[in-house]
Amino acid sequence: MTNNSKALEESVRTIFSLPQIVNIERQILDLYRKTIHSREDRILEKRIRQLLMERKEMLDKEFVMDVGYQQLLSEFNDALRQQLITMHEKILKTYHALRSTNISGDYLSVLGKCFLGYNYSKIHPVQTIRCKKIWYILNGSLDRFFNERYDGGVCGLDGWHYDASYDDAESLDNLLYLNAEDRNWDDWFKDDPLTVDMQIVYPVHNLLEYTAFSIFDILWVRDFNIELWTELDYGTDNCRDDEDPDFDLLDY
Prior knowledge:
By secondary structure, the chain is mainly alpha-helical.
């Protein structure tokens, strides 16, 4: 490990030791403990979500891009891109395999969800019990989803659907970059000179812009979990004689 790497890791440990960070993480964990035995789950869960976003804002304010963080971001982006490529391949393979069976149905789709690894990264500079427990609350591996807009994984919304119903449906660029011309989602970094040519995939932007993950949570992630879901709609009433009702009419 170089002196620069040691300095970066020590800086991260210092950030996670800031009183405001320690305090808010303890609040989150105390509230989660209460949800296990409380009848006021919804109230407590709402507060946990609020605190997770406050924690994210506190941590992200401490982030200043440099070559060390650029390298970590590049490694995370490359690892995530490769998993998304694998997921894309599995989605298409699954869809076409089902179609080749001449399966009956009006609509067939395959949904892919890619999640950050459920286990806390072993290469993260901070290896405290507190941070590991926060990770489990963030990453959706518990019974409840506290991290809003992450239930569909890194892609956002409900994940990535494929049903062959539109032009370029199989496009890998659609999954990685939402077909953006510059193929680089570095908006969160405010066009920092160190990120302008990194070809950051959209899911990195989604994680940083819309979920409760801080930049300091994801930079050391190298493992992922992929889920595939198939949906087949099949109806016995294929010929509808009735028109859709007009609810503006007072005909009842």
